[in-house]
């Protein structure tokens, strides 16, 4: 049987090396009590903890990195998180740093970071929606918040690098009394034994916000942007094995990335939240994929790319088998909403990174600022 949660049964060099935390375990000299498992990703697991802060009991998220990811996270994610937190990043909806420490397990040493708690992800919200497509006004609110967070990061020369439906969250009422009664009303954490290992099943927190809330409520949502695991500051080098929503500059032999790569990812995310389809895939040689982008986006390939090693024998001729942005959005949206959404997505998805909107320009873009003009069936 394959492991139902993070692979506690694998050693670090095979993608394991997770910390095997247990419910009600007290960690870091008893300071943090583990209450629930919120979830896990390829590099870490995240737990809801209860602890004292300024003479009050509060809930926080405890992110425990795998042994293999801990050193890297110490050099990149941790300093970026601290720096952004010092800048009152709660105004930007970015994670708030509350402490860090190291913890030993049989597998090795784990970096642990304490942060504020984030609840429902945009991905979870999307899964609940009809056809997994979110209404226009919901997408506008989520994308606006993401652009706002990116504006704050980019001002500090930080590239987020992981803008997708898993990094955008809805906040919730974190008042200790309120959250405690909510947790008490839900099923208690479940553990499962597999191959001699005991794992706790993930229980993400969910907000009362719903995908089909009306626009007047959605505009008040507390939207946050987390997951700084792919963030880089000042010097940007594409991470091996990370796809950046296939941003074309990352596909070249002389691959690059930058804060403008975030804008590409934001454009792809917007399209995906509206249509529940991915605009581009990772298939075929670079020349073929960039020719498809050229056709889908109706945008010219920068001349300087034509001498790149991965662009030998490039021609603009794409196969006929592609869906234009207009056609894709027309399938999902009311006809009155198609044009403005197309304009926004295309302005994010320019092949030449320099031509893409800045994060501030995204926030000022007509499609996001004229949020009244939603023709979805809910408004
Ligand atoms: Zn609407």
> Order of helices and strands, N to C?
EEEEHHEEHHEEHEEHEEHHHHHH
The CATH superfamily of the largest domain bears the name Transferase(Phosphotransferase) domain 1
SS elements, strand count: 12
Radius of gyration: 22 Å
Q: Main β-sheet, in a few words?
A: 6 strands, antiparallel
Which compounds are bound in this model?
zinc ion
The tally of domains stands at 2
Fraction of residues in H or I helices? 25-40%
Q: What's the helix count? A: 12
Euclidean distance between termini CA atoms: 46 Å
Named CATH topology of the largest domain: Transferase(Phosphotransferase), domain 1
Shape verdict = globular
> What is the SS-derived class?
alpha+beta
| Average residue pLDDT | 93
Can you tell me the CATH class of the largest domain?
A: Mainly Alpha
Pfam family, one: Pkinase
GO molecular function: ATP binding; protein serine/threonine kinase activity
GO biological process, one term: regulation of RNA splicing
Keywords: ATP-binding, Kinase, Nucleotide-binding, Serine/threonine-protein kinase, Transferase
């Amino acid at each position: 049987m394959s492991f139902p949660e993070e692979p506690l049964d694998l050693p670090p060099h095979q993608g394991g090396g997770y910390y095997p935390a247990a419910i009600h375990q007290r960690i870091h000299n008893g300071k943090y009590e583990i209450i629930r498992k919120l979830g896990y990703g390829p590099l870490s697991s995240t737990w809801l903890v209860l602890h004292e802060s300024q003479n009050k009991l509060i809930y926080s998220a405890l992110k425990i990195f795998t042994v293999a990811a801990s050193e890297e996270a110490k050099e990149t994610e941790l300093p970026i998180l601290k720096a952004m937190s010092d800048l009152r990043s709660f105004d930007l909806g970015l994670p708030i740093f509350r402490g860090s420490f190291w913890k030993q397990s049989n597998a090795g040493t784990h970096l642990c970071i304490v942060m504020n708690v984030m609840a429902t992800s945009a991905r979870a919200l999307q899964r609940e929606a009809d056809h997994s497509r979110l209404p226009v006004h919901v997408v506008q609110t989520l994308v606006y918040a993401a652009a706002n967070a990116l504006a704050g990061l980019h001002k500090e020369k930080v590239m987020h690098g992981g803008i997708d439906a898993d990094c955008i969250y809805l906040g919730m009422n974190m008042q200790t009394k309120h959250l405690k009664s909510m947790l008490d009303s839900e099923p208690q954490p479940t553990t499962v034994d597999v191959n001699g290992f005991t794992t706790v099943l993930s229980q993400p927190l969910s907000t009362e916000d719903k995908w089909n809330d009306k626009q007047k409520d959605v505009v008040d949502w507390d939207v946050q942007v987390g997951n700084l695991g792919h963030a880089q500051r000042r010097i940007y080098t594409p991470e091996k094995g990370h796809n950046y929503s296939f941003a074309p500059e990352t596909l070249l032999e002389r691959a690059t990335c930058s804060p403008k790569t975030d804008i590409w990812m934001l454009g792809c995310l917007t399209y995906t939240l509206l249509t529940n389809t991915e605009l581009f895939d990772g298939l075929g040689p670079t020349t073929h994929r960039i020719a498809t982008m050229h056709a889908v986006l109706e945008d010219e390939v920068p001349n300087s790319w034509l001498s790149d090693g991965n662009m030998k024998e490039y021609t603009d001729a794409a196969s006929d088998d592609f869906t234009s942005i207009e056609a894709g959005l027309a399938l999902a949206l009311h006809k009155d909403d198609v044009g403005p959404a197309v304009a926004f997505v295309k302005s994010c998805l320019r092949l030449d990174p320099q031509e893409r909107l800045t994060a501030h320009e995204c926030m000022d873009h007509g499609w996001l600022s004229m949020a009244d003009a939603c023709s979805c069936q809910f408004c």
